[in-house]
UniProtKB/TrEMBL annotation:
<dbReference type="GO" id="GO:0016020">
    <property type="term" value="C:membrane"/>
</dbReference>
<keyword id="KW-0012">Acyltransferase</keyword>
<dbReference type="InterPro" id="IPR001594">
    <property type="entry name" value="Palmitoyltrfase_DHHC"/>
</dbReference>
<feature type="transmembrane region" description="Helical">
    <location>
        <begin position="206"/>
        <end position="226"/>
    </location>
</feature>
<comment type="similarity">
    <text>Belongs to the DHHC palmitoyltransferase family.</text>
</comment>
<protein>
    <recommendedName>
        <fullName>Palmitoyltransferase</fullName>
        <ecNumber>2.3.1.225</ecNumber>
    </recommendedName>
</protein>
<dbReference type="GO" id="GO:0005794">
    <property type="term" value="C:Golgi apparatus"/>
</dbReference>
<keyword id="KW-1133">Transmembrane helix</keyword>
<dbReference type="GO" id="GO:0006612">
    <property type="term" value="P:protein targeting to membrane"/>
</dbReference>
<dbReference type="GO" id="GO:0005783">
    <property type="term" value="C:endoplasmic reticulum"/>
</dbReference>
<keyword id="KW-0472">Membrane</keyword>
<feature type="transmembrane region" description="Helical">
    <location>
        <begin position="172"/>
        <end position="194"/>
    </location>
</feature>
<dbReference type="InterPro" id="IPR039859">
    <property type="entry name" value="PFA4/ZDH16/20/ERF2-like"/>
</dbReference>
<feature type="domain" description="Palmitoyltransferase DHHC">
    <location>
        <begin position="128"/>
        <end position="259"/>
    </location>
</feature>
<dbReference type="Pfam" id="PF01529">
    <property type="entry name" value="DHHC"/>
</dbReference>
<keyword id="KW-0812">Transmembrane</keyword>
<feature type="region of interest" description="Disordered">
    <location>
        <begin position="1"/>
        <end position="47"/>
    </location>
</feature>
Length: 322
């Protein structure tokens, strides 16, 4: 019975007969995925080569190791990695540079707002920003870092260097998702590298010997793996927290943290009742503005001008049906 390790290496050998245990083909000689050791004899450590030369065999075998042997399917490997990378940088760029929902007003509008609020006796800080001198829309908050009011403010993210609000929250979620995909790629790539390049296995040598061997086999790869695992943990926590708030609670991070400050939330010791929560399915459709070729009709709200929680979902004065 051939072991899974033997099968993997034999498949990576590129069309040659399968062999038991380690494959005995030279690294990359016939275009297939190279294996370690390059000859039949065992060596304690791989040869010292440049970093690029070390990474190349690993990247060749990371995606679709069987299909990659066939030239006509080789493009799938690059295509998958390329799309993940492009989507990651696109969503990061949009989170970083796009308008998060800045509430703008001219000097004339500011004077008019102050006079109107003063005459009606409602010039209080719950609806008026004394820094921006504007009437704050519902769900907005003044960002102390950026010194501006943001519509549907979620939080200020130092990681993307921008506020996360109504204008870029979807892109921020896309950034987290593709960042998680990229981290998984990194972890998978590291594991493939060790299987190919390091003359040790977990089952044969035990846990501590295995860890020591892979750490000395390529310290750079080991460092990359530790970094990936660290970032994997906090990104998973963050994206799960965000999805829970968006889909299940229908509130932002700011509203969840400061729910008692806002009159329109009913807060108990165990739950927060939000007037913006329309059910998990509807919340997701509205948040991501999913249309699916006309199958859904998301309710799109201009949160920069929405000053009331009394939504009219049919007239277009509040929620606007698309
Ligand atoms: Zn403000
Ligand atoms: Zn900010």
């Amino acid at each position: 019975m051939m072991s899974s390790r033997g099968v993997f290496l034999a498949q990576a050998g590129g069309g040659r007969p399968r062999v038991r245990g380690r494959a005995r083909t030279p690294a990359g000689r016939d275009g297939g995925c190279p294996v370690w050791p390059p000859s039949g004899r065992r060596e304690a450590r791989p040869r010292r080569t440049t970093l690029a030369a070390e990474l190349r065999p690993a990247s060749d075998c990371v995606v679709f190791p069987k299909l990659a042997e066939k030239k006509k399917f080789a493009f799938l490997r690059e295509l998958q990695q390329f799309h993940t990378l492009v989507a990651l940088f696109y969503n990061f760029g949009k989170s970083w540079k796009s308008d998060p929902g800045i509430i703008k007003a001219s000097e004339e509008q500011k004077k008019k707002t102050i006079v109107e609020l003063a005459e009606t006796g409602s010039l209080d800080l719950s609806i008026f920003c004394s820094t921006c001198l504007i009437r704050k829309p519902v769900r907005s908050k003044h960002c102390a870092v950026c010194n501006r009011c943001i519509a549907k403010f979620d939080h200020h993210c130092p990681w993307v260097g921008n506020c996360v609000g109504s204008g870029n929250h979807r892109y921020f979620m896309g950034y987290l998702f593709f960042l998680l995909c990229m981290i998984c790629w990194m972890i998978y790539g590291c594991i493939c590298y060790w299987r190919i390049h390091c003359a040790t296995t977990y089952t044969k040598d035990g846990f501590w010997t295995y860890v020591t061997q892979i750490a000395t086999c390529s310290s750079w790869m080991f460092w990359m793996f530790l970094n990936s695992v660290f970032h994997f943990m906090w990104v998973v926590v963050l994206i799960m927290c965000q999805i829970y708030q968006i889909a299940c609670l229908g509130i932002t991070t700011n509203e969840r943290m400061n729910a008692r400050r806002y009159k329109h939330f009913k807060v108990t010791s165990t739950s927060i009742e939000s007037p913006f929560n329309h059910g998990c399915f509807r919340n997701l459709i509205d948040f991501f503005e999913l249309r699916c070729c006309g199958l859904f009709r998301p309710v799109v709200v201009d949160w920069t001008t929405q000053h009331s929680i009394d939504y009219d979902q049919t007239s277009g004065s509040g929620y606007q049906l698309v």
